[in-house]
């Protein structure tokens, strides 16, 4: 009986090692199903997600516009901190292992985290509406430019103007935007222009994500955006592909060494490739792999020829700038890293005051490699205006062929809340440890029982042999 029990325990231990019930259960829990724990966490992430916004105040606006100063002098002001209440709404489960949803990202200003800064602070900043309309009109024939120039002169609107922080970020109605909204509805479908307002315009967006039904590791990753696995503004799969990218809520699970990930936010207008930058990290008790943007991601083909597909209409911007005009309603907008970090030095020469700092301005992601759960993240980009020849536009001549930094932002999640952290420590540390204890205990206990059984059998056989030997000797003696 002991030997049979020992064999059974060893077999059970071996089967547990082979089948790995913990892994099977964990994979099952990763699959999105109505009411499941991981699905509910993804649908409305219970995390502290913030966007920190830094504005650029032009301190010599009058001197620059009058010609007394050769360059604009900018001064960083911020951060203005907003909490982002991210959620996936109007969810429909599809028959092909995906679900459809509409993203929702409302922002709430955080006075306590913004220090002494308030949304009604006034600064001298670029007039986004005027410069955008001038950039479009400058390419038009004279008879189309003339009424716009007349309106600019009559209203005395200037390319740099005093605005509150909120007006600059969220926009305010102006004569020019009202005119554009009225007469150019195919270009401007709104009556105010604010960079954050446009950046967080998700009204018409719809997306599909994998549920993990076919492969648990890809649950929560993009299948399509606006009905396609490719972003319409780029040509070629290297630049356009969005499939298997993360929106930052959950990344691919069971990450292997040297695996690269994809990350997408609408404000970036493209996917970014994430590469590993170290695996031996601990974030609040959970194992983490550090990911960063791949080197030369914003080089437009100068270093990596594949990136030439980010050149809009064949026009390649200098290294460090990505033309996102198509994502910002035709406005002459380009993204860079904050303060033109890693950009071509000639880009920094357009204005005075940019101070790129790799420690302060580089992005990173701390991701648990088993679950794909982001434990900490910091995503940093800068929004710039890249202007063409404006010499034919009233009041805008000085801004011809300039790259003007407008603002930079950091989307950050400093860590998981305690309630969520304790839950994942249980799933990712305590349960696996218990699983190993059970596996080794079954093998060890089975081995002990088997050893006891073998010893007992050996002793029994030895005793029987001794008895037989003694009886044999006694018979032999009696015969003699």
Structural topology:
Blueprint: H1 2-19, H2 21-30, H3 37-43, E1 50-58, H4 61-66, E2 72-84, E3 87-93, E4 98-104, E5 107-109, E6 122-126, H5 128-137, H6 142-155, E7 160-164, H7 165-170, H8 175-183, H9 195-199, E8 207-210, E9 222-225, H10 237-240, E10 261-265, E11 270-276, E12 281-283, E13 286-293, E14 322-323, E15 333-336, H11 345-348, E16 351-352, H12 358-361, E17 364-367, E18 374-386, E19 403-413, H13 418-479
Parallel strand pairs: 2-16
Antiparallel strand pairs: 1-2, 1-19, 2-5, 3-4, 4-8, 6-7, 8-9, 10-11, 11-13, 12-13, 13-17, 14-15, 15-18, 17-18, 18-19
Helix pairs in contact: 1-13
Describe this structure in words.
The protein contains 13 helices and 19 strands. The protein is 33% helix and 24% strand. The two termini are 44 Å apart. The protein has helices at residues 2-19, 21-30, 37-43, 61-66, 128-137, 142-155, 165-170, 175-183, 195-199, 237-240, 345-348, 358-361, 418-479; strands at 50-58, 72-84, 87-93, 98-104, 107-109, 122-126, 160-164, 207-210, 222-225, 261-265, 270-276, 281-283, 286-293, 322-323, 333-336, 351-352, 364-367, 374-386, 403-413. With 480 residues, the protein is of the alpha+beta class.
């Amino acid at each position: 009986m002991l030997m049979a029990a020992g064999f059974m325990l060893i077999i059970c231990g071996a089967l547990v090692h082979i089948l790995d019930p913990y892994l099977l259960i964990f994979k099952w829990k990763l699959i999105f199903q109505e009411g499941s724990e991981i699905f509910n966490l993804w649908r409305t992430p219970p995390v502290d997600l913030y966007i920190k916004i830094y504005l650029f105040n032009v301190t010599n606006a009058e001197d620059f516009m009058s010609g007394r100063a050769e360059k604009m002098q900018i001064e960083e002001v911020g951060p203005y901190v907003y909490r982002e209440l991210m959620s996936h709404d109007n969810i429909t489960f599809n028959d092909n292992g995906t679900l459809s949803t509409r993203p929702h990202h409302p922002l709430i200003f955080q006075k306590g985290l913004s220090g002494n800064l308030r949304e009604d602070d006034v600064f001298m900043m670029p007039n986004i509406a005027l410069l955008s309309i001038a950039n479009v009109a400058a390419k038009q024939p004279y008879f189309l430019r003339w009424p716009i120039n007349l309106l600019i002169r009559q209203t005395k609107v200037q390319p740099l103007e005093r605005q509150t922080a909120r007006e600059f970020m969220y926009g305010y109605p102006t004569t020019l935007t009202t005119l554009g909204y009225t007469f150019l509805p195919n270009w401007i479908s709104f009556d105010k222009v604010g960079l954050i307002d446009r950046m967080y315009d998700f009204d018409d967006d719809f997306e599909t994500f994998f549920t993990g039904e076919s492969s648990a590791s890809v649950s929560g990753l993009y299948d399509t955006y606006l009905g396609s696995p490719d972003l319409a503004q780029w040509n070629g799969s290297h630049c356009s592909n969005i499939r298997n990218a993360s929106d930052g809520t959950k990344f691919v699970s069971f990450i292997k060494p040297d695996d690269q990930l994809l990350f997408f936010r609408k404000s970036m207008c493209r996917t970014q490739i994430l590469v590993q930058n170290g695996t031996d990290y601990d974030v609040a008790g959970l194992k983490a792999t550090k990911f960063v943007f791949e080197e030369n991601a914003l080089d437009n083909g100068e270093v990596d020829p594949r990136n030439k597909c980010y050149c809009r209409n064949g026009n390649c911007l200098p290294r460090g700038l990505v033309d996102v005009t198509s994502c910002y309603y035709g406005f002459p907008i380009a993204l860079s890293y904050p303060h033109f970090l890693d950009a071509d030095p000639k880009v920094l020469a357009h204005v005075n005051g940019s101070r790129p700092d790799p420690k302060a301005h580089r992005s990173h992601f701390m991701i648990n490699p088993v679950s794909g759960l982001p434990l900490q993240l910091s995503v940093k980009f800068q929004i710039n205006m890249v202007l063409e020849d404006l010499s034919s536009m009233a009041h805008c001549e000085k801004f011809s062929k300039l790259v003007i930094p407008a603002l930079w932002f950091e989307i950050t999640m400093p860590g998981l809340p305690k309630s969520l952290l304790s839950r994942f420590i249980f799933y990712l540390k305590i349960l696996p440890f218990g699983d190993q204890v059970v596996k080794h205990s079954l093998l060890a206990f089975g081995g002990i029982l088997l050893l006891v059984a073998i010893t007992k059998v050996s002793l029994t056989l030895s005793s029987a042999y001794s008895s037989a030997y003694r009886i044999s000797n006694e018979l032999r003696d009696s015969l003699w």
